[in-house]
Design a protein that fits this description.
Blueprint lengths: L5 E6 L3 H13 L4 E6 L2 H10 L7 E5 L7 H10 L8 E6 L5 H14 L3 E5 L3 H26 L1
Parallel strand pairs: 1-2, 1-3, 3-4, 4-5
Helix pairs in contact: 2-3
Length: 149
């Protein structure tokens, strides 16, 4: 039996980060299809246009031009057609302090984010974290499909 392909949408304005993400997806043992958008406005336009065929998950950068990830997450979770989309937020480490980051992550989770990934200099760790999040979602989907069969 062919494993289901996971359709992943990445909202990321940095080309290097998009390239890294694409490389990670090619190296993990989960079959994925990646679509990318480069800012928050493009993301929301894409989601509204494809609201009948949403991706399996969205990786959403917090700091993007035109509309940031926080604004996009709020808009997604307030929309009936989009609110069930699984959103993983990610951003670079915050220079202020760990309490600020912890409060922000709590707020994002309360709004409806599935998880939060901190981008950092340790690419191996970032790759492993992305892999684990995708694997968890893929396993959950597989269980759901078995249960509904």
């Amino acid at each position: 039996m062919n494993p289901k392909q996971m359709n992943i949408l990445l909202a990321e304005d940095d080309q290097d980060d998009r390239d890294f993400f694409d490389m990670v997806l090619k190296e993990i043992p989960v079959h994925t299809q990646l679509t990318t958008v480069i800012d928050g406005e493009q993301l929301m336009n894409y989601l509204y246009k494809n609201s009948e065929n949403l991706p399996d998950m969205l990786f959403l950068d917090l700091n993007m031009p035109r509309k940031n990830g926080f604004e996009c997450l709020c808009e997604i979770k307030e929309d009936e057609k989009l609110k069930n989309l699984l959103v993983v937020m990610f951003s670079t480490a915050f220079p202020r302090d760990c309490d600020y980051e912890e409060d922000l992550v709590k707020r994002l989770m309360k709004i409806g984010a599935y998880d939060f990934i901190r981008k950092g200099d340790n690419l191996a760790l970032l790759k492993e974290f992305i892999h684990q999040v995708i694997k968890r979602v893929a396993e959950k989907e597989s269980e759901k499909n078995l249960f509904n069969a």
